[in-house]
Amino acid sequence: MSFVFEGLRTEAQSFLKSTNGRFYVYLLCRQDGRPFYIGKGTNFRALDHEAEARRNHPIGESNPFKCNVIRKILRDGGDVIYRIEKLYDQYEQQQCLEREAELIHQYKRLHEGGCLTNLAGGLGNLSGAAPFSLERHAATLSGEPLDNPERAVLNKFLLSIGPVASIPIKPLSQIKRILPSSPHPSPRSPTVRCAYALIASASAEGLQLVDGVRLSRTFTYGGVRAVIENGVSRDILKAGMAHLVSADAPVDEKYQLSAAHISLLASLAGESNLIERGLL
């Protein structure tokens, strides 16, 4: 694949200044050259993502996976590599959109086995949404349930980590009672579903998974306040996936992870899954 531009942020800024408002498809790449995000934009749009990640304000991050990867690159002393594949005139905006979707399909997103942190597949179609069940697809528009947009936002976020039969995080506003966490009375084994709940919390708050990290039971994604539901929280504790840091209010609880807990998380969700999201 050829590019009209490839370089670092300062060089990209100079190049984009010369595009005169034309559309372009851009690739944000890791140090080894693999893209982790593909987008379409005009002017300095390609640079916005790094600026957002540097602000490190998770409440305003629409895609924490992308921002966490950028932060990891910068934390490791590297630079984001910018690639501009092609420029498009104003009347070619549709071709630009189609090329963006084509490249996302080519490289594939993380939950599809690819390398991209993109949540959408381009063009805003249903096939681009995270892998909702057939039942939910039937009741959605662009991946969003018509009757519950807050739930749709969190579903899409969680399912972009990986498929589960039942979403372990819920809108805080839609749970009548948040109970204090205590280990479930019945035996519980570590599950991928519980692992994804912890990954969602870490991702949304931009936290590294290091020994002693504390993950919040409640967090904000896409403007929606989310909470790890009561039963899942109990299962996490019973299965030995984290230690509880109790609080006066259940919504303020945290889960503290040791190195052993993080190793367990990696075995359940896949170490590469955590690395590619900038968590390890």
Automatic annotation (TrEMBL):
Top-level lineage group: Bacteria
Domain annotation GIY-YIG: ranges: 21-113
Protein's name in the database: GIY-YIG domain-containing protein
Organism expressing this protein natively: Shinella fusca
